Every structure is written in C-alpha cells, then in structure tokens.
C-alpha cells in the first residue's frame, strides 16, 4: 500500500499568505522568514502535489488550476487547525457575555461564519450581537454598551482600533432596470438617511465632476437600499460586500475613494473572550476580503 502524503500546515500557511498578499516576498516579511525559505516551502508543496501550483505571468506569479484547488483546501485545513487550537486553549477560559456590533453589510455574508466558528471553539461564552449602521454602533461603543465593533472608518479617533482592510466604494445599479446616464440630468441616488459616509462620498464625487443629483429614495435599512436599486429607482454607493445577484457595478461615473474597515474595542474589552472573538473576526475577514479582489 502506497504511503499517504501528509501536507505540512506550516507550508500551507506560507502558500496561502503568499497568494493572498500577492507576493511571497511580502509573505516572508510577515512571517519573519527569508524569501528563500518561503520559496523552499513552495517547492516542497509542489513536489508533494506532483505538479506546479504557480506559473509566471509577466513579472509575477499566478495560480495554476492545480494551485487554485490547493488554495481552497489549504484555507479549509488551516481554518480547521486554528479552530481546534482555539477550542483547546479556550476550554479553561472564563465564562460570560460578549457584546459584539457589526455593520449591516456583514449581517448575512459574514456573521454566520463568525458565530459558527466562535461558538464551536468557545461554547462557554455567549454573544449579544447588534447589527446596525455605523453611527449607532460607535455610539454604543462610546457608551459602554458594546465590547467589540466591526464598522467603517468615519474618521473618528478611537484609542483601541485595528485596520482590518481597505475596500473600494463602487457605484451600484440594477441589472434588469439600469439607470440611464443622460447628460445634464440629475443622477437619482438611493441612500441611507443622513448622516451616511457613503452618501457623502457619492454626493462629493458627483459635485466635483460637475454633475447634479437628486434624492430618489431614502431608507433606514440596507435591505431597503438593495430593493430600491434593484427596482430601478436609482443608483447607490457601497462596497462590493454582500452585493445581491440582482445588482451590478457601474464604471461610467466619477471615481470614488476607498474606505477602511475597522475593528474597534472598548477600553474594558481586554478580556480573553474579546481577544478570541477578535481573532475569529480577523480570520473570517482574511478569506472573505480576498474573494473581493475580482472587483
């Protein structure tokens, strides 16, 4: 019987880091290793796979079909490994409630994964989750009503914060009933009630380009925004996160800025439970944000 190949999780972690960062040299710096050591790990992984996982494309490297398969399995293996470690290390942690706030953009797409990973690894903790818009979340943090908040960077200074990623703001339109861009006519906007970071970005971009706009639909919920855009009432500005299949990106309107995604912690959130939840959120975001590169 032929001996089975056991993949090295350390090698897989270097492989995933190199692909997600777009550079194995950067991955080497992040993992405190030499570039030659990372290259040796990639060579070892390719030898175990029996075929090339990366190929040259211009000055860089891209995944081969076999590399894409390996990447998917590597992420699953690493996630299971990290979950097992968290479960064992957390088995003796204190019990209690953790109050977690999250932007609406992540309510359906990311929240189930975070809840599943955390509750499996740390069943002794209970999560009190609030899904809302940016300002109510930050207000809750300031009032001591929340311990951890995943929200957009609105420029408010906070002593305990961590940048989780940077995403593009995009013009979003209906697939079935797109809005016609008629010169000299006001652009119909679908947006949240003020104050809203993305509404402000949309209005500023249009005004700087000398284009007029009008409020076509106003909502207090993200589901309302998506429904109005899908119906053809107007355009909205959002990141590609959780974009419904009924909507599409528009590329013929003024450029929009990027926006940072932040993880905010209350001053009292140094407890082990909050630290573990922050790790789960960070891990879930790594793979999720990487999937948005196609935009």
UniProtKB/TrEMBL annotation:
Keyword Aminoacyl-tRNA synthetase among record annotations: no
Record-annotated HTH lysR-type domain positions: 7-64
Pfam families associated with the record: HTH_1, LysR_substrate
Source organism phylogeny: Bacteria, Pseudomonadati, Pseudomonadota, Betaproteobacteria, Neisseriales
Protein family (similarity comment): Belongs to the LysR transcriptional regulatory family.
Protein name per UniProt: LysR family transcriptional regulator
Source domain of life: Bacteria
Keyword Kinase: no
Region forming the signal peptide: none
Keywords of the record: DNA-binding, Transcription, Transcription regulation
GO MF annotation list: DNA binding; DNA-binding transcription factor activity
């Amino acid at each position: 019987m032929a001996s089975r190949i056991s993949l090295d999780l350390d090698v897989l972690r270097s492989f995933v880091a190199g692909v997600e960062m777009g550079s194995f040299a950067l991955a080497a710096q992040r993992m405190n290793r030499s570039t030659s050591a990372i290259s040796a790990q990639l060579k070892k992984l390719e030898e175990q796979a029996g075929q090339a996982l990366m190929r040259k494309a211009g000055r860089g490297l891209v995944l081969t079909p076999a590399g894409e398969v390996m990447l998917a399995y590597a992420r699953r293996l690493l996630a299971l490994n990290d979950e097992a470690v968290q479960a064992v290390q957390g088995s003796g942690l204190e019990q209690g409630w953790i109050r977690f706030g999250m932007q609406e953009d992540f309510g359906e797409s990311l929240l189930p994964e975070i809840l599943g990973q955390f509750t499996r690894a740390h069943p002794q903790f209970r999560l009190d989750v609030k899904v809302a818009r940016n300002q109510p979340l930050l207000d809750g943090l300031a009032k001591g009503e929340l311990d951890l908040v995943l929200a957009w960077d609105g420029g408010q200074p906070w002593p305990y914060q961590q940048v989780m990623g940077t995403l593009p703001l995009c013009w979003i339109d209906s697939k079935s009933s797109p809005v016609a861009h008629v010169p000299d006519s006001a652009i119909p906007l679908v947006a949240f009630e003020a104050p809203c970071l993305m509404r402000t970005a949309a209005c500023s971009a249009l005004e700087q380009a000398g284009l007029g706009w009008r409020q076509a639909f106003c909502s207090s919920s993200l589901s309302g925004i998506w429904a109005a855009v899908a119906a053809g009432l107007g355009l909205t500005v959002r990141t590609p996160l959780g974009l419904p299949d009924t909507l599409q990106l528009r590329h013929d309107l003024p450029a929009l800025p990027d926006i940072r995604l932040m993880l905010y912690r209350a001053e009292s959130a140094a407890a082990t439970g909050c630290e573990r939840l922050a790790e789960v959120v960070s891990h879930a975001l790594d793979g999720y944000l990487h999937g948005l590169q196609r935009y």
